[in-house]
C-alpha cells in the first residue's frame, strides 16, 4: 500500500498524464489525470489469462486482447468507483450474475469479440449507471437475451441475426451499432416495425447487414437521427435506397453513408434524379458514396442535392464525362474526395440478393453520353480531329513554345470545379497522363492532393489556381516539370512532390525558373526524387521557406543557396551521399540561425568521412548552434576504412586532431625527403650528363651565332679542318714544330690549333666546341700536362660527346701519347678510350718517327 501511495504521489507531482508500469502488476500501465488519485489501468495485449486484482481507486480497466476465459464471481467487488471496463478480444464464455457485482458505478462494459453464449439477466441488475454495452461478435442469440435490466442503455453494440423487431425495453437507446462489419448482422427487410421502439436514436449503424429492402417509414419516427450508415448492403442499390429518402426529411440527418451499396462486378451505375429527389429537404452535410461504380450522373442530380452539403466522399467510382459536369460549379461542397477512381478489385464472395426488379442497365442509358472520362485531362482531341503537327509541337519541351501556349489560352484544357471547393483529394486514380495546360473554373481551392497517380510529366501551366496553398503531387513517377508549370499558383505554401523522378529535370534549372513564382512557399518535400544535384539558384525566390526535405536523394554536396532563407527551420538531407559539408556551406548554415530560432538539420544515413581533410566538419558538428537531428545515429568512415557512429563529435575531433598532427608532420617530412631526393637525382643527372649538356649548350649557342655546319648534298659533311689538335700549352713546342711541319706542310692537311685558329672575341669554350664540330678528327696530345689542364680535359670530353651525339658514335678521337703514362695515372674516361680505340705513342727515334707520321697522316686524311 505504501509503494502504491508513493506511486500515486509521483503521479500527482507530475502534471502530465504519464503511463507507468503499475505497482500491483508490472504487466499493466497506470496513468492518472493531473492532481487526481483516480487512475486508469491499461493491461491490453499482454497475454493475460488470469485477471489481476486491481486496487480500489481504479476508474477504468482495459483488458482487451488477452486470453481471459473466465471472470471469477465478485472479482471487481472492491472496485466501487470503476466506470469503464473492456474485455474486448478475449475468450470469455459467459457473463454471470455476480461477474460485475459491487462495481455499481460501471457505465461502460465492452465484451465484444469473445465466445460468450450465455448472459445472465442478473449480470446488469445492480449496475444502475450502465449506459454503454458492447456485446458484438459473440455467440449470443439476441432473441434469448433478457433485457430487463438494460433499459437505461444509451448505446448498444450487438449481433443481429434475423430479428423482426427491436424490443421495447431499449427505448432509451441513442446509438445502436448492429453493423456486420464488426460483428454479425442479417436483416433482409427493414420495415417501419423494425425500429418502432427506438425513436430516440441519433446514430444507427446498419452497414453490412445484408439488407435487400427498406420499406417506407422505417426511419420516419427517428426525429433525432443524425448519422445513418447503410454501407456494404450490396443488394440495396440506389433503387432500394429511394424508400429511405422518403423518411430522411423527417429526421435530423447530417451524415449519410452509402458506401458500396452496389456489387463490385455489376453493371456501372447511373445516379438518377429520382434516387435523390427527397434529399433536397434534408440538412445533410456529409455524404459518402464510395465504391458504387457510379459512372454517370443524370443531369439535374447535382441541383437536387441538399444545399447544406459540404463534404462529399465518392472514391472508388468510375465517373466519366457527361453533361452533368456543367452543373458541378453549383455543388456547394467544400471538401471532395474522389480518390481511387478506376481502382482494380479482387474477386470476392458476393451476396446473393432476394430480388430484384431488374434494374435497367446503366449502359443502355448512357448511350447519349460520350464515353469520355472527365478526369481525362489530355488536351482535347475530339474524334475526327486528329492531333496536328502544331499542337504536337506545343507539347514539346521547348519552353518558348510553352509560353506561347500560355499566352494563347485557347489551348488550355478546361477543368471544372465546384465554386466553393476548398479541398480536393484526387489520389491514386490510376491516371496515366501528362498534365497539359489546364484552366480551372473559378474556384477557391486551397488544398489539392493529386498524389499516387501517374502524372508523369508536368507541362502546365495550372491556370486560375490562385488560392491553392497546399499541393501534393507525390508518387507520380514524374520526370519532367516545365518552367511555367507553377506560373499561376502564387499562393502555394506547402508543396509535396516527393517520390517522383524530378532528378532528371531539376539539375538543369540553373536559373531557378521552376519555382520562381512561388514567393510564399514555406515547405517543400523533394524526398526520394533521385536528385544528383540542385543548382545554386534553385530556391532563389523562396525566402520564406521553413522546411525543406531532400531525404533519399543522391546529393553529394549542398550546392544550392541557403543563406537567404532566414526562416528555415528544418532541412532534411538524410540518406544522401554527403561525405562531409564544406566550410562555405557550414558558414552559410550558421548564418541562417537567428537568435531564439532553431534550425534543425537531419543528416542521418550519409556516408560521412572522418579523416584529416574533414576534421573541420567534425569540429563543426559540436560547435554549431544548429540542432543536428538524430545525431547519435550518424556514421562515418575513418581513414582506415572502419565505420563508426559519431556518438561524441568532440571526442572524435580530439582523436582526429592527434592523428592528423602526426599526419601533418609526416607529410612535411616526406615532402622534405622527396625534395632532397629530387635535388640529388637532378644533381646526379646534371653531373652525369654535364658534358653532354655543355656540348648541347655550345652547339645551340654556335648555331645561334649563325655558324651552321656546311653540308654537301650527299650526306657527306664538309669539314673546315681535317683535325683539331688538342694539346697542353707545355707541349706547344712539339705541336708547333713537329705537327705543323709534318702534317700541314708535307701532307697538306688542314689542322686547327687553338693558338692560331680560334676566333677572337668568342668565349673559349664556344670556340672549342665549334672547332671540334668543324673538324673531322680530334688528335689529343696526351701527356702529364694534358691531364692536368682544365681546358685540355674540356676538349677531350667535348670531343667524346661530339663523337657520340653528332657523329653517330664514329671514332673521331685519336690519342697521341707524347710520353709514357702508366694506366694508374690515366683518368677513367681516358683509359676507357685507350682500351677500346686506337692510340699511338710518339717514338723518340728517327725510324719510328717516320712510321708514326705516315700512320697519323693516314688516319687524318
Ligand atoms: C499486440 O502486441 C503485438 C506485439 O507486441 C503486436 O504485434 C500487435 O499488433 C498487438 N495487437 C494489438 C491489437 O494491439
Ligand atoms: C468510458 O466509456 C465511455 C463510453 O464508451 C467513453 O466515452 C469514455 O471515454 C470511457 N472513459 C474512459 C476513461 O475510458
Ligand atoms: C467457445 O464456446 C463453445 C461453447 O459455447 C466451446 O465449445 C468452444 O470451445 C469455445 N471456443 C473457444 C475458443 O474457447
Ligand atoms: C435507470 O436509471 C435510473 C436513474 O439513474 C435508476 O434509478 C434505475 O434503477 C435504472 N434502471 C435500471 C434498470 O438500472
Ligand atoms: C434464437 O433463438 C430462437 C428461439 O430461442 C430461435 O428461434 C432462433 O432460431 C435462434 N436464432 C439463431 C440465429 O440461432
Ligand atoms: C428476465 O429476467 C428477469 C429477472 O431475472 C425475470 O424476472 C424475467 O422473467 C426474465 N424474462 C425472461 C423473458 O426470461
Ligand atoms: C418501398 O417501400 C414499399 C412499402 O413502403 C415497398 O412496397 C417497396 O417494395 C419498397 N421498394 C423497394 C425498392 O424496396
Ligand atoms: C434544415 O435547416 C433549416 C434551417 O436551419 C431548418 O429550417 C430545417 O427545418 C432543417 N430541415 C431538416 C429536415 O432538419
Ligand atoms: C479519401 O478516400 C479514400 C478512400 O476511401 C480514403 O482512403 C482516404 O483516407 C480519404 N481521404 C480523406 C482525406 O478523406
Ligand atoms: C509533321 O511535320 C513533319 C516535319 O515538321 C513532317 O515531316 C510530317 O509529315 C508532319 N506530319 C503530319 C501528320 O503532318
Ligand atoms: C487511492 O489513492 C491513494 C491511494 O489511495 C490512497 O491514499 C487512497 O486511499 C486510495 N484511494 C483509494 C484507495 O480509495
From TrEMBL:
The protein's name: TIR domain-containing protein
Keywords: Glycoprotein, Immunity, Innate immunity, Leucine-rich repeat, Membrane, Receptor, Repeat, Signal, Transmembrane, Transmembrane helix
Domain TIR: 719-860
UniProt KW S-adenosyl-L-methionine keyword: no
Signal peptide region: 1-19
Transmembrane segments: 663-686
Residues in coiled coil: none
Pfam families xrefs: LRR_1, LRR_8, TIR
One Gene Ontology cellular component: plasma membrane
GO MF annotations, alphabetized: transmembrane signaling receptor activity
Protein family: Belongs to the Toll-like receptor family.
InterPro entries linked to this entry: Leu-rich_rpt (IPR001611), Leu-rich_rpt_typical-subtyp (IPR003591), LRR_dom_sf (IPR032675), TIR_dom (IPR000157), Toll-like_receptor (IPR017241), Toll_tir_struct_dom_sf (IPR035897)
Localization of this protein: Membrane
Lipid bilayer topology: Single-pass type I membrane protein
Source organism superkingdom: Eukaryota
First-listed, main subcellular location of the protein, grouped into a coarse class: membrane
PROSITE patterns xrefs: LRR, TIR
SUPFAM superfamilies: L domain-like (SSF52058), Toll/Interleukin receptor TIR domain (SSF52200)
GO biological-process terms attached to the record: innate immune response; toll-like receptor signaling pathway
